[in-house]
Amino acid sequence: MPLVRDFRNYSYKSVRIDRCGRHIGSELYWKLYAIENTVRIVIHSVLTAQVGTDWWSEAVGVESTMAKNASKARARYAAKPQNANPGLSDIHLVTLKELTEILRVNSHLVIRVVPDVSDWIATLESIRVPRNLVGHMNFPNAFDRMAIDSAYSQLATLLGHLSTNRVPVLVPK
């Protein structure tokens, strides 16, 4: 496969934009999708086991800014019923930064299942900027790509903590 370079560094050719888009989608976007959704599943699974099915209101707090932002996002989706539904659980409405914050604030509970929760918080923080670059259709550099690849390569270990501690894997609806 030929080396793909950031189209913004060259004169305009639509094929360059297409090539960059295909490259980012096939090499990075799907990994970010897997990372964020796996973290959602792990948070949901662990906090359901530790707190109960209504973990969101206890672990996040119904009066928190995060809960209010999720509620506002849900209202925006409800106003556009022709668009896809993000899911029933409010965890589908939070950003990577907020997922990291849920882990941090509830680390005293999560550590019982995920002993390296602090490392995961650091890993997620390390991909926030690269994730935003990709999410906002920019071209990440080698350092950014390496951070995403590293986080993705650790997902099996993260999920392994659930089975090791006999916590069922629960996909939030």
Give me a quick take on this structure:
It is built from 8 helices and no strands.
Topology, pairings included?
Blueprint: H1 14-50, H2 55-61, H3 65-78, H4 96-105, H5 107-110, H6 117-135, H7 142-153, H8 155-164
Helix pairs in contact: 1-4, 1-7, 1-8, 4-6, 6-7
Structure description:
There is one protein chain. This protein has 173 residues and is mostly helical. The protein has a domain at 13-59 and 94-164. 65% of the residues lie in helices and 0% in strands. It has 8 helices and no strands. It has helices at 14-50, 55-61, 65-78, 96-105, 107-110, 117-135, 142-153, 155-164. Helix 1 (14-50) runs parallel beside helix 7 and helix 1 runs parallel beside helix 8. The longest helix is centred in the first third of the chain and has 37 residues, at 14-50. The chain is globular and about 55 Å long. It starts with 13 loop residues before the first helix and ends in a 9-residue tail after the last helix. The mean pLDDT is 94.
Number of helices: 8
Coarse morphology: globular
What order do the helices and strands follow?
HHHHHHHH
First CA to last CA: what distance?
38 Å
- Please state the oligomeric state of the protein chains shown: single chain
Structural class: mainly alpha
Largest sheet: none
Radius of gyration: 18 Å
The residue fraction in helices comes out at 55-70%
Number of strands: 0
* Percent range for β-strand residues: under 5%
Please mark out the parts with pLDDT under 50 across 5 or more consecutive residues, or reply none. none
Q: Roughly what is the average pLDDT, rounded to an integer?
A: 94
